[in-house]
Design a protein that fits this description.
Length: 278
Amino acid sequence: MDSTGNRTIHRQRFVKTSVIAYMILCWCLSSSAQQKIVRCTIKGTVTADQGQVIGLRVAAHNLDQKLWYAVFTVKGEYTVPQALPGRYQIMVYEPAYDSPKLPVQLAPGETKTVDIELKQRGHEANSNAGGDEGPRQSRNSSSKIVYVNSLNEMFPAGPALALLKENCTGCHAPNGWSSMHYTKEGFLRGIERMTETGPANQDYVLALGRTVFDRSQKEMLADYLVKNFGPGMPEKRLRVDPLSLDEDVTSKAIYVSYDVPEDLEMQLDQGNRIGANT
């Protein structure tokens, strides 16, 4: 076969190969486009029966994907951009207000408006809303509220103060201590739970490592706590300046978090304790 025939055969093979490659490329691009998830948008206004709506936190809970988006209002409006499609509950998380949980269904690429109306809580409800330390007012409180201007007033000098600062105040908020009003025995049980078995008796908790206190340190710390925050003591609260929010800044932030899987195995501490009383 002459050179002209060879060139023709090679050209035909090249054309066939190019066509096949092009078809494969088109199929891949089409498949990729089909798999791409088209994001959605949730927006709306937040109003309150009392008070001003300034930088309030709006949460969007995706019930299908088990994730949360949190954004902040600006001039009474909010926007959740780039949200995954699915079923949602929309709510406002602010201690001073009660918020409804509003359902919304988002299809791929869809934008929906969800307006939220808040009701301000009463003073009693706000004062009783506590974090991990429990209610603001306890049965052992003197019911007298005393506002202090500094941490030195909140935590007076004492032999256990250094121990408290080094091991406790990093996690427990200042106002939380004055709401405990435990007896010495109650404080001792709390100290042992925090330092030996970990918060909620869970080994996997990352917020606090194991801290070994001997018996004399536990006694000293419990004596300090019952003296300053025990039964009948006034409710000490740290006076703080009102928070000034820059809505133009906070409204640009978005936080994404995830639900703990329902099938996650959690093993509680079975009593293997360290830091035995010595």
